[in-house]
Amino acid sequence: MSDQSVRTLVAVDGQVDGDLIERVIRDPRVAVAAVGDPSTGWPAREDAEALLVVCRDGSDEGLELVRRAHSDYPGRPVVVACEGSPNGFLRKAFRAGAEDVVQVTTAEHTATDTYLALAKAVARRDSEAVAVAGGRVITVLGPKGGTGKTLVSTNLAVALSADHARAVIVDLDLQFGDVGLAMGLRPERTMYDLALSGGAPDASKLEGYLAEHSSGAGALLAPTRPDHAAVVTPDGIREILRVLRATTAFVIVDTPPALSPEVIAALDESTDVCMVTMLDAPSLKNTKIALETLQLMGVTAPIRLVLNRSDTNVGITHADVVHILGRAPDILLPSSRDVVRSVNSGEPIVGSAKRNESAKALRALAGLYLNESS
Ligand SMILES: Nc1ncnc2c1ncn2[C@@H]1O[C@H](COP(=O)(O)OP(=O)(O)OP(=O)(O)O)[C@@H](O)[C@H]1O
Ligand SMILES: [Mg+2]
């Protein structure tokens, strides 16, 4: 989702009329999963990210809905939209478990206030979950140049962030990194500046070195010159990934086509590996060797396999891929001219509203990680 919408289950009590509900949910970013009266049973919507209770001022029914929302949908934040003055009601609503209370005023203000309260509540819940469990570090590998590592890692970071899971991409292609180019970001401060700044990085210091993409994704960019790469050490990378992981739901690591000491350091800190391969003999041979090497290195992180340019007709079939690699790809990513255009314009294709099969496959990859994290 590129529109930052919040999938919302709306609960109303019998006293609330349709006009009031319409005023509360009319912001298009409030993606209504269902509207229902829980006294007759919640609609089963496991995909809801948040619950919205619409009620009249101070109604006991409203408070009861908040309590039921918590027991029926644990882990989802509850926001209350209340007509009339919520004074007096506020404390009771918070005690019943509401994250926020929105006062219904004019249609325009109410709709925006409700959306912002829902989005904030979901973001707060996500960052609390990260603080407790730590985020995931996904290292994107592809043991041959040009297989699509940067394409996959930049789009993954943007797709996850657009779906409310803050992601930071770290460009470990230290000599010729092009994450900044692929995301349209200027390398004002890079890993080189961070390494030269000295001292151990903490979360707020690191924030100052991230370039921000409009999707909400952050990017720690590679040095701008190959001769600057040597100042970034494997120990420094370990430290950066540990700090980022403590505050970020997803840390995505883009890599050069080699198991360099920096990449091995990243693998030590990784919870996941995403291997990108293509339908040509050298790619498949190297992918097979890389998979075997990861096993020998004792990497236990689950490995997702992306077959890039999966629709290429070059005499190697998908059955051959399964035969050579001993497993089927998780994602088939077809070739597309729009991909090339998106790379050239510095805007990851998952951010485009245009229907495109490659973008769909990249969003599906993000969906695999999101589903495992929820
Ligand atoms: N599915 C695709 N459809 C169309 N073009 C693609 C696709 N995948 C990759 N490309 C093109 O191939 C180029 C190389 O992809 P990318 O930079 O992601 O590879 P890489 O594995 O990061 O390469 P390197 O090892 O050099 O860092 C991209 O600039 C893009 O133009
Ligand atoms: Mg690359």
* Radius of gyration (Å): 23 Å
Mean pLDDT: 90
Main sheet strand line-up: 8-9-7-10-6-11-12-13
Q: How helical, in percent, are the residues?
A: 40-55%
Report how far apart the termini are. 16 Å
**Which H/E pattern describes the elements?**
EHEEHEHEHEHEHHHEEHEHEHEHEHH
Overall structural class, as computed from helix and strand content, comes to alpha/beta
Largest sheet: 8 strands, mixed
What hetero molecules are bound to the protein chains? adenosine-5'-triphosphate, magnesium ion
Please indicate the percent range of residues in DSSP E strands (runs of 2 or more): 15-25%
Describe what you observe in this structure.
This protein is α/β, with parallel strands linked by helices and 374 residues long. Helix content is 42%, strand content 18%. The chain has 14 helices and 13 strands. Strand 3, helix 2 (60-72) and strand 4 form a beta-alpha-beta unit. Helix 5 (149-162) crosses helix 14 (357-373) and helix 9 runs parallel beside helix 10 (261-268). It is elongated. 46% of the residues are buried. Adenosine-5'-triphosphate binds at residues 142, 145-151, 173, 257, 308-309, 333, 335-336, 339-340, 343, 358.
